[in-house]
Amino acid sequence: MPAEQAPRRRTSPLPIAAGKHVTPHVLRHTLAMDLLQHGVDRSVIALWLGHESAETTAIYLQADMKLKEQALAKIDTADIRLGRYKPDDHLLAFLKSL
């Protein structure tokens, strides 16, 4: 194929990746998180990534803030008294003595 007909290679980074260090590990982690967020079972993700066990996949599936917020949104807090914890004086004195 003559040089003028050769496919053009992308020499500039993708705008979304500009200034970021994108490695194969980052791509695998991103894919695993995206699959998890779309409801794919962890065992399927483990197989897709080629892992021997689901425990290996846990490295890639550490929950991000969006997943944590979704989990908290599912909790019924109607019967939970919300407020900030205030330790009593005995506990504070004990902690200060340490």
Keywords, separated by commas or semicolons:
single chain, 98 residues, mainly alpha
Q: Could you characterize the architecture of this molecule?
A:
The protein is mainly alpha-helical and 98 residues long. It is built from five helices and no strands. The N and C termini lie far apart (77 Å).
Summarize this, please?
The chain has 98 residues and is mainly α.
List the helices and strands and how they pair.
Blueprint: H1 24-37, H2 42-49, H3 54-57, H4 65-73, H5 89-97
CA-based gyration radius: 24 Å
Q: How many strands, what sense, and barrel or not for the largest sheet?
A: none
List the total number of helices: 5
Write the H/E string, N to C.
Answer: HHHHH
Q: Could you list the spans in which at least 5 consecutive residues all have pLDDT below 50?
A: none
Shape: elongated
Total DSSP E strands: 0
Helix percent band: 40-55%
What share of residues are in beta strands?
under 5%
Question: Overall mean pLDDT score?
Answer: 78
Structural class determined from secondary elements = mainly alpha
Task: Tell me the span between the first and last alpha carbons.
Answer: 77 Å
